[in-house]
Amino acid sequence: MRALNIPVVHHNAAVGANLRDQVTVPIVYKTKKGLSYDPQNVTTSANMWQYLAAGKGPFRSPGFEGLAFANPTTVPDASDPSSTPARPTVQLSLCCGGGWGSGVGLRYGCPKGVFDQFPEAVTVLVTLLRPQSHGHVTLSGARDPEIDPQYLCDPADVPVLEAGIRLVDRIFRNKPLSQFVTGVRTNYNVKPDPGDDCAGTPRTAPNAPALTVRSAAMPGYSPVGTCAMCPVGGRTAVVDSETLAVEGV
Q1: Per its UniProt entry, which superkingdom is the organism in (predicted)?
Q2: Residues 195, 201, 207, 210, CA torsion sign
Q3: Is 142 exposed, middle or buried (0-12, 13-18, 19+ CB in 10 A)?
Q4: Where are the domains of the chain?
Q5: Residue 201 to residues 115, 182, 192, 209: CA-CA distances in angstroms?
């Protein structure tokens, strides 16, 4: 701050630190014709008037038709009545469309082709609920701050997303959803788990999920942590969790 001629009232290294944001990976599956929201067939005047007149049709869609929370790495013991599911590590969001190309994918930094390949498709967003990676927000000049989320820098984050991708793949490769999917999704494929119903579906290298995470991940836009509320004296405290007073001021 002094380098930018901003007077320092109190130094607190936690200000702007501990930036955490969820990371999401879009998984796109091609569907049979007429089952998904192809933008060319959805964005019509007839569909618009149907929604305005009767509140029906594709424009009534909330955006995500399905939502699930899962922990794909921990399964409760069915034989033990006291066994309970572990808390979720990923969120799965189902959208009945292929992302609608550059209108969504390129806007969020996804490589071209992740969404564009299948105009009729469904997309599942695999979102990391509790990222271990953390970044920072700092001043870098008189105008724009430096925002560095440090996505996937903690080695613990990638395996969780990999497990989420494998779970989604297992769901779509088996009934009932397999009857609606006509092709392997975009050019990032995962190796199915043993026992999956994968007839006619090519298998790929075991490290494919990690490559998918690294190449197709995009921001989840849920940043938190740079102004942490903690008990007085907490290591990452910026404001007091009870009074919201700035720590040290």
Answers
A1: Eukaryota
A2: negative
A3: exposed
A4: 1-18+225-249, 22-73+85-220
A5: 20, 10, 9, 16
Number of residues written out for the chain: 249
Q: What is the pLDDT along the chain (249 residues), one digit of tens a residue?
A: 777 788 888 888 888 888 999 999 888 888 888 777 776 677 788 888 888 898 887 777 777 888 999 998 876 666 666 656 678 999 999 988 775 444 444 445 555 555 555 667 888 899 999 999 999 998 887 778 889 999 999 989 999 998 998 898 888 888 888 888 886 554 444 444 443 333 333 344 445 566 678 777 888 888 998 888 877 666 778 888 888 888 878
Bond preceding residue 176 cis, omega within 30 of 0 = yes
CB 95, CB 63: distance < 8 Å: yes
Quote the tokens at residue 213: 């995470």
Give CA–CA dist 156/236, Å, rounded: 21
121 near 95, Cβ under 8 Å?
no
The domain made up of 22-73+85-220 has a fold known as Glucose Oxidase; domain 3 (3.30.560)
Rg for the chain (alpha carbons), in Å?
A: 22
